[in-house]
Structures are given as structure tokens and as C-alpha cells.
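Study this protein:
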Amino acid sequence: MIYLDLFLTFFKIGAFTFGGGYAMLPLIQEEVVSHKWLTLDQMIDFIAVSESTPGPFAVNISTYVGSQTGGFLGAFCSTAGITLPSFIIILIVAKFFIAFKESTAISGIMVGLRPCVIGLIASAVVGLINTVFFTGFSGIESALTVKFISSAVILISMSVLLIKKISPIIIILMSALVGIICGYAFGL
């Protein structure tokens, strides 16, 4: 039953990842690709779309996967699955806020989770860089293709803009514009 599978898969993702959408990315990628709900290329494309649309990344991608897999009901089940664990945890934290706030154990857990979250985000970034830049290339000659060069130019340009504290909206719009130009100019 696809609806239960979508709900339980995204419930597990929501329950066992800390640090928001980017920390969830490796688990989302593993689950979605292993269930064959999206290919890795489709996943990367949708990451770009979900980052440029309003709303949390995890909700956007779970809704999209559910919609692609099971229509409206699939979108509802996967979105409920990804959001329900956070809702339950927030209710528990709100009820016991003072005890959690003063707890040495909870403070220790949070200190221990921070490096883990950074590691998960770094893992997702390295995996995406590998897929975007190097999947499908064989040898040095093909690595210097238009796709690779245009992706590298966009990445470097956007990194410079981020360092210079340019608005993320401008960065997203400029990336889209450069991508459109390269697409038309080089038939990507």
C-alpha cells in the first residue's frame, strides 16, 4: 500500500534527523532513490526547485515525492509523515520546557548532535557536487564539457556573491538566468 509506505518512510525521516532539511538530505535521498520514487537526477533537480520555492525543504520534497508517487493522497500522506514527528516533539518540549532547559543531559545531547548535523550536511553537499559535476563524465576531456564548465562558473560566481553578502533572492535569480542562457546557448 503506497500511501502507508509514503507516510512511514517520511515519518522515519522526520523522526530520525535533526538539524532541518539539509541534515535530512542524505536520508531523504537514500529512501527516495532506493524506493525508486525519483531518480538521483530528478532528486537533484527538485532540490534546486524546492530551494527556490517558499516553504521548508523537507516539506516541499516530501509533498512532491508523494504527489509523483500517489497523487493528492500520496502528497498528503508523505507531508503528514515528515511533519508529524516535529509536531509531536515540539508538544513534548513545550510541556516540559523548564525541565529540558535545566537538564545537563539534554544540553550534552545537543552538544553531541551539532557535529553530527554538520557532518550530515557536508555529506549531502559532497554527494550533490559529485552528481552534478562528475556523473556521466569519463576522462579529463569530457570533464571539460559545457555542462561541467557552466556548472562550475555558476558555483564559483554564487560563492563569491554569498561571501559578499548578496541577497539569496538575487543569487537564485542569477543562477536561473545563467542556467537559462547556457541552456539556450549550448543546448543543455
User: Anything to note?
Assistant: The chain has nine helices and no strands. The two ends are 38 Å apart (CA to CA).
